[in-house]
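Late entry, written up from scratch paper. The run itself happened at the end of the previous shift, but nothing got recorded in the book at the time, so transcribing now.
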Amino acid sequence: MNNKKPQLIMLMGFITSGKDTQAKILNERKGFSRIRTSKIIRNKFMTYPDNPDVILAKKQYYKGDLIEPKIVAEWVLDATNEKYKSGNSIVFSGSPRTLYEAKNELPEFIKLYGKENIKLFFIDITEEEARKRTNERLVCDKCMEVIRPDKYPDAKIEDECPTNGCKGKIIKRTLDDSEIFEVRLKEYYNRTYPVIEYLKNKVKFYKVNGMNDIESIHKEISKNL
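Output as recorded:
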């Protein structure tokens, strides 16, 4: 990758399709900088709790609704411009989430990276599998990394996070409760899937079988970088 121009990669798919996991692997093995919309959002919540945009965003986020697109697009573009300065390729996991974000972010992405260096990977899993994974999913309450069962099969709630020494605790998120999952699933079909349909005709598009094991998915993505 050192001999190539920096790339902008978008990983999209159902809830629990493995977007964050694959983004983390690209970061660790290929030096991609990660842009995690969920992390940007949580950082805004902690840093600017009295900001009107943040107050509105928090209400939407904890109900399982997607946050006001205009707010998210502004935050994401700020983060993208900062990461671009490093000269590294970047990877998004699950972003953009709405057509508004896609239509407003893509022109800026093209200005920075060039259309030929922007790729979308759709990690495809079934709705049944998404429900199963959501029911089983554990995360760290500090770094918010997913606790991968293939790497940490004995991990359980309240254990110390084993992923990166952050000393957080393993939790099951409220966002992964079954009722909120159904809200998020509806949001995905109504607002996020149309983004994939829009972007697949604008940038290089690859469909990846997310039912495969993690390493196979990584290899499939890597061969198209």
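The CA atoms of residues 93 and 130 lie 16 Å apart.
(Scratch paper discarded after transcription.)
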